[in-house]
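Human: We require from you a protein record containing the residue sequence and its fold in token form, and nothing else.

Assistant:
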Amino acid sequence: MKKKIIGLILTFLIGIPTFASITVSPTRIEINANKIKNNYATTAIEIKGGNEPMRFRAYPGYFTISEKSEMVMKDSSNDPHDISSKIRFVPSEFTIPAGKSQKVRVNIANIKSLPDGESRAVLYLEDVNAKELSVPYSGNGGIGAQLILKTRVGVPVYVDKGNFKKQADIEYFNIVREKDGLYTDMKVLSTGNSKVRYNGTFQIINGKKLLDEYPLDGKVVGNNSFYIAKQKIETDKIKEAGEYTIRVILSYFDENGNRKNIKKDAILKISEKI
């Protein structure tokens, strides 16, 4: 006897261009509606197939961004910033021959009716043909399972309109000790009505001497939200006891496309050699 179990594999393309033998470009859609003269926006994505033909259907959904910088899917929403009902795809279902590609036109209607700030949707690309996987049962009785898998890729769509603002700040920046080393404890704020996507660098300074510099992990912070950034501090260049400055330089782009930098320092006191 076998049980049939339906499973869904889902990934969101936020800088991850390839999944499940397909390549999607671009990995996200961002539109400034203030630069559009008409009451609609049109763009496109390209999906490149793998080594075998695949059939997909395209349909919309809605999401929010959590305080863990993760996309949270919503089956339904009364949020005025939900644009899933305004999106149409051409074609909405298609087959990609092996090694070939398919362009999908994305149309967003009635943009002028959107409220100020950021509106969102997600473009789902779902593999129509489910895959079956036999799962053996290791216990007595020999009962196994037939796992039916469907692959779904999600491409986020953002539309900024009207009086929107992208503004970040660092509320606090501390250093904490854990069993396996030193970590940052940093609260990044997004105080505008549109998300902030940041990256940056860490610097380790002794006196006026720059000892080391390495990347700050990039994240997305939802509008009017925050993110607690925990990242291990690299201490390879700290060889002596003493007082060191750990500096974070956080970078993001504001609503006008201008790069903004925020600097914050924390003092690290080392009582003995590392």
Q: What stands out?
A: Confidence is low (pLDDT under 50) at residues 1-19. The radius of gyration is 23 Å.
